[in-house]
Amino acid sequence: MRSSRREASDLNSSRAKPDEIWASKFTVAKILEPMECNTHKLKLIRELIPANPTLNREQRNLFLSTYRSATLKKRNGLRILRAIAEQQRKSGKIDRAQKLEELKNILQVELFDLCTEVHMMIDKYLYPETMDANSNAFYLKMNADFYRYEYEFASEANQQELASKARECYLKAMHISKESLQRGSALSLSLSLNYSVFLYEVENQKKQAIDTAQNALDESGILVHDGNDDDYSEAATTQQLLRENITMWTRDEGE
């Protein structure tokens, strides 16, 4: 009679492998993305990155979109609170302004914590494992972007250091882009877009910002569809954003 008892070897053979579990969790995070379940996505990604920091393009984009979405809500909230607090202060409603400042400080700490988390994951886990130019440029750009997010709401005492860190990451990424990335790729264009915004808004290098954006447009030329719909769509959208910024910045400089 065959025994119904299962031994340890039986359990091991039926148990999913760590790589399979890791991949399935990333799939869950991807499914959650359109549902805006950001808290659950953050929890999953916090578990996944240390376990296996070698991400493919789709996984890198999910990592970026999850943290960008989480920080965007806080950045928008901070801008609103800052504007309302200033209005209350001008109206002489000091108590209300102080309460809004307290809320702003809480939200600010939450934003900085998220940005610090991104820097830690990139510097400790992701960037050291990169083996190709696209990954290197992606993580350098992402690090720079999140330093820029912090800069907007940091104290004057901390802004210089944040600007310096962002500048260093952007310049390294731009060097990789120039040497190794395909002109007109979504990553190359988005890097030029965000670096030009940094130059304009943080460094106050307005002419250089316009030149950087214009050079990116000129070098990308007419986009050629290479079969990747997502990359083509993102590149086309980024080209349009570059054009809009150039138009707006040029107009502002002429006034």
TrEMBL record:
Site (Interaction with phosphoserine on interacting protein): R75, R148
Bilayer-crossing regions: none
Xref: CDD domains: 14-3-3
Top-rank taxon: Eukaryota
14-3-3 domain span: 28-255
Pfam families given in the database record: 14-3-3 (PF00244)
SUPFAM superfamilies to which the protein is assigned, alphabetical: 14-3-3 protein
Coiled-coil annotated spans: none
SMART domains: 14_3_3 (SM00101)
Family according to the record: Belongs to the 14-3-3 family.
Name recorded for this polypeptide: 14-3-3 protein sigma
Source species of the chain: Tritrichomonas foetus
